[in-house]
Amino acid sequence: MRINGRVWKYGDDINTDVIFPGKYTFSVTDADRMVNHALEDLDERFRYEMRPGDIIVAGDNWGCGSSREQAVKCLKAIGVGAIIAKSFSRIYFRNAINVGLPVIICPQIVEYVEKGDFLEIDFVNGMIYFEEKKWAFKSLPTFLQSIIDDGGMLQYLKKVNKE
Predict the structure, then answer these.
(1) How far is C-alpha 160 from the chain's CA centre?
(2) What is the pTM (predicted TM-score) of this model?
(3) Range of 73's domain?
(4) pLDDT tens digits in sequence order for the chain, 163 residues long
(5) Is 97 helix (H, G, I), strand (E, B) or coil?
(6) Which helix (H) or strand (E) holds 5?
(7) Do 53 and 81 contact (CB within 8 A), yes or no?
(8) What is the CATH number of the domain that holds 142?
(9) Number of folded domains that form the chain
């Protein structure tokens, strides 16, 4: 699988309250409505200017804070193609896989790209391309990549249980 997208770049320690504000946790439960609040406290233009397939590039510890699933679901629902970061909080990383949002650890790329740049990601070969540069990343184990490819854990389990 390959995706192409425009970069949205953010820094270190972006927590789940900034990705999806905690004040909406119990009042906004539908993913189609969650998109209206994606990153609103960090980047008010994101939800208006983001295009399906765009890629978030971030520093260390993306998704720290609470284990709020909405912080992943809102980005998946708005159409984020992947998140590339220097590192992820462990629980955010797993929540992303569970909802089928590709996450990549590639610290080297963060220093080279800026907001608005275009990247191509080749998940099969574990490569990210930007202009004349390319970076390798460690691909996910096959069973985790299968969960993402199937659109998330629920879809994966339905598929596996049919077989």
Answers:
(1) 24
(2) 0.95
(3) 2-162
(4) 899 999 999 999 999 999 999 899 889 989 999 999 999 999 999 999 999 999 999 999 999 998 889 999 999 999 999 999 999 999 999 999 999 999 999 999 999 999 999 999 999 999 999 999 999 999 999 999 999 999 999 999 999 898 7
(5) helix
(6) strand 2-9
(7) yes
(8) 3.20.19.10
(9) 1
